[in-house]
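Task: complex structure prediction.
Instruction: return structure tokens for all chains below.
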Amino acid sequence: MQRSTAIRRTNQNDSIPRKASKPNKVLNLKPKKKTKPKPKKPNKKDPKTMSEETIFSKIISKEIPADILYQDDLVTVFRDINPVAPTHVLIVPNKLIPTVDDIEPEDEATMGRMLVVAKKIAREEGISDDGYRLIINCREHGNQEVMHIHMHLVGGRPLGFMLKRES
Ligand code: AMP
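Output:
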């Protein structure tokens, strides 16, 4: 008789004062703290987050106008806005690679395409027989203004020495 009463009391929870129950981890009932999501840092190597970052990206995506001579899946060619010779075009990878120092092994095909397309455009411009110059500037000492790799194709007149000698 006594035994059955004890069992009933325990089951009914009516006689033993209890502490507030702990959060139920299984059901995850603990109220979640509101935290501000951290702004994602742009991944400079990810072409998705890098796109539209340079003026050349906008030319490639035709957001801003330029005199585009050629475009394929890897490169775009357009006339330099401030030409230094009768022919001055820029051969630019569609993928934003900021400088030569950022080229990865996976960019080999793109770099090769830039040269193949340079030859083609030079022929079309009629400057191949006389010759021309291809230039890629890199960073500060190279005087690189736009941080999106580009190869200058310059020709149509004698270009002189490549660099002035320091006296
Ligand atoms: P670099 O000094 O090698 O970075 O050369 C950048 C080149 O981009 C310069 O020759 C500029 O004249 C050229 N450039 C800058 N903005 C434009 C543009 N919107 N369209 C065409 N060429 C541009």
